Here is the input.
Amino acid sequence: MRTAADEEGRVREGGSEQAAAESDAASKEEGDPMLLNGFNHVATLTNDTERLVSFYREVFGAEVDGTMSEAPGLRLTFIRVGEAAELNVFEVEGNTEVARQTPMFGRGRIDHIGLQAASLEAFEEIRTRLIAQGAADEFVTDFGPILSVFFRDPDGLEGEVCVANPDAVPGVSNPPGTPAARYVSG
Here is the structure.
């Protein structure tokens, strides 16, 4: 499944969906199976586990699968955000990294997380909840094959919720900042 980051990269590189698919096919041996089926977890830092858990619970219906304290001043909480995906949230006493906020593409190797909504209806409910929390504005990006809403969690982690675009035109990709017509009022 492609993410917004994939789509952004394809647009930035000037490639088309068809060229990307041909390149993927050419680089893969015939009959080689995909060896992965997604991400298991993303590890993040926080200075307030309860606040972060509350946000992901209220917005996404996420659940805590457990916590661990491996050493004094260190707590790890597992927040399940999908059938086989979770955030591993570390609260480390005295760590100030979570307070740093940098602009997109200046955040290091992992810039943001992209979450997949279960359906268009789920996407719309998540979007409503993000707006109510003050974590997102009303803008929805139309990347062509996917719709996307960006958000910032209480610790400043940038995220994106994606869903298949029911209005997509096959072979058409749009650049970042393209408004999704179904979410433009007036």
